[in-house]
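4.2 Preliminary Data

To establish feasibility before requesting continued support, the project team ran the inverse folding procedure on a target of 116 residues. The structure was first converted into the token representation described in Section 3, and no sequence information of any kind was made available to the design step. The complete token record follows.
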């Protein structure tokens, strides 16, 4: 019983670290790892203004730098990003680290609308 309570506390601590709330949304994205010649096309499993989670069979190591594009309808949002979590054969957590303010604001408006 004590182990279960500890696990719940750890999960709550992880959630509290997040700066922005996540929503489940399949947004088309493409990203290119540094030093790669071609982009990977997929979609998000969930997303926030701070990053996203991408489910995929082949995963990237933590610390991999990415050039990323998110597509909100016809709007192309570009960002630099970095892989922050790695779940082999399942997916990666990706943090946006260089999104222009205009693109950040567009994503924020989209997410606020999607939550309502």
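Position-by-position output of the design step:
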């Amino acid at each position: 019983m004590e182990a279960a309570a500890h696990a719940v506390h750890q999960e709550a601590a992880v959630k509290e670290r997040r700066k922005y709330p996540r929503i489940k949304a399949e947004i088309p994205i493409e990203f290119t790892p540094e030093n790669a010649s071609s982009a990977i096309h997929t979609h998000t499993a969930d997303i926030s203004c701070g990053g996203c989670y991408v489910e995929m069979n082949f995963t990237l190591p933590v610390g991999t730098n990415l050039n990323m594009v998110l597509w909100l309808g016809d709007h192309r949002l570009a960002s630099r990003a970095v892989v922050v979590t790695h779940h082999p054969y399942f997916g990666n957590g990706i943090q946006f680290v260089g999104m222009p303010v205009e693109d950040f604001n567009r994503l924020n408006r989209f997410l606020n609308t999607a939550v309502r």
